């Protein structure tokens, strides 16, 4: 549980239109997701006194708050890549627990796919060339190349195979097949993953996340507001955050992600263990991210991720630990900083609102505990949130 006096719950969670959205702006998707999250909670926007947003506007989150008609007295604009939203959720939970806010809205939206299709932007090869990055960018060390290097190091040190990495993509697609809102639902095989066009060795195309449009929103509230909500609360039990490096030369071990620290902190603060989790929602811009995060969160030992994933454990249907139950960034949607989508899916699973992809606990009941862990940059940051229901 977040430290402080008051318990904190997620009371609203929603997505905007996702996938292929050619007729909306990022602001539109922010507003759409925010309205839906408030409607999900059954609360009026007047109760929102805290707001967190990143990635849009010159003065994020000021511009987005203005667009939504909010005047918050607590704000957060933390921006650490894909893990932003788990880190923001941790900050919001602490603020609510301490009485600095009563209801905090986290919201994100992006038209990453539509902008490229319309020629409004191009693909990013790097985050820039200032500061520590100036020593890497001139050599063509792109974002995906950094993940590929880390994956190759894991393969060399631990014997992880490309077929095992491909299994992550295959099982994500199997889960996406159960999600009517996933962009890609057709089954794929290991051979199809391996035979695709090479993007950055050892990653072929299907080892990489898709590019989509979409937005998401989550509303966290103090326990005294829960009784006014139309949905059952999903409690924030424990959180952790960690940053590890900016330059690859400062990363001590390519086979260990910052989730090794954020996960340990989150589980310790929640008073639970990885073995008690009914599912995991993990950031998966690339297949290796899923594998190494499973290790670092403690679902298997270091170097055992390959053997862990190859046995079908990540599937909703028949898997021991369903992972990325909506299909993840590899198949469902990935509009940029996808961390907020992990929280939405975790909440839906705990409430029993996931339809054909609904996970069941070992006793056949609805899941009681789940974890969402986001990764940012090139394994530079991590935020982990443990959630549970009554």
Largest sheet: 9 strands, mixed
Q: In sequence order, what are the helices and strands, one letter per element?
A: EHEHEHEHHHHEEEHEHEHHHHEE
Radius of gyration, whole Å:
19 Å
Distance between the termini: 13 Å
Uncertain segments: none
What's the mean pLDDT score? 94
Question: In which order are the strands of the major sheet placed?
Answer: 3-2-4-7-1-8-11-10-9
Helix content estimate = 25-40%
How would the global form be characterised?
globular
Helical/strand content category = alpha/beta
Count, helices:
13
Number of strands: 11
Features:
13 helices; 390 residues; two-stranded antiparallel sheet; alpha/beta
Word description of this protein:
32% of the residues lie in helices and 17% in strands. It has helices at 26-41, 62-67, 84-97, 112-117, 143-158, 162-176, 190-194, 223-226, 259-270, 287-296, 305-309, 328-331, 339-351; strands at residues 8-15, 50-52, 74-76, 103-110, 198-200, 203-204, 214-222, 234-243, 280-282, 369-376, 381-389. The strands form two sheets. A nine-stranded mixed β-sheet has the order 3-2-4-7-1-8-11-10-9. It has a two-stranded antiparallel sheet with strand order 5-6. α6 (162-176) crosses α10. It is globular. The two termini are 13 Å apart. Pfam families: Thiolase_C_1 (PF22691). It comes from Streptomyces cylindrosporus. This is Acetyl-CoA acetyltransferase.
